[in-house]
Amino acid sequence: MCSCLPVVVLGAAAITTISTDPPYNSLATGFKNFIVTAQFPTPTAFGDQCSWFYGRELDSGSGTYFYSSIFGGCDPPAPGTYDSITCTEQTIDGTNHTITTLTITQPLVAWNLNIEVRCIIATTPGPITRTVQDCPSSLPYGVVVSSSSRTYQASGMFSCPTGDLFYSNGIALPSGDTTCLENAEWNGQTNLQCKL
Fold first, then answer.
1. DSSP character for 7?
2. What keywords is this UniProt entry annotated with (predicted)?
3. Coil, strand or helix at 89
4. What is the pLDDT of residues 61-110, one digit of tens each?
5. What is this structure's pTM?
């Protein structure tokens, strides 16, 4: 699946996109190896440089450089403590494109994660924002989730203060066991409710 921003056509075959894997707008605290991929027309202006920015880098203005027209194109850094970047160039329908990925390898912490590719001159895809949060402690229709942790892959238990757990289609929940998923939802929470 692709969580893509609208595609901007910059000519017959020039495409600019940014997408994420997983494709969710919300991510669970503790999830790691979040991947963002950007594609844009390869910069042609002499002296153009491109960098990934996220988190505090957006505030400081110093991103992680991966492309330079002076040094012949893609030049990603070695994998770092927090992230890994790739960069390739590809011809698509006669137009040269740069395709780059940013993988945030450390567990995500709760905040609004803003991510952007910037070049000095070339047009790049717009920024994206993802919300990083814990899985919820309660759900609609009176459902409560008990867990010692609400981060990615934490185990939990659905329960009702009164009544039994049923899905909206009338099927009873066979077990209250659940796990916090990468999209900051509990496995099986959709349409779950307490019924007397």
1. P
2. Signal
3. strand
4. 568 899 999 989 999 999 988 899 999 999 988 889 999 999 999 999 98
5. 0.84
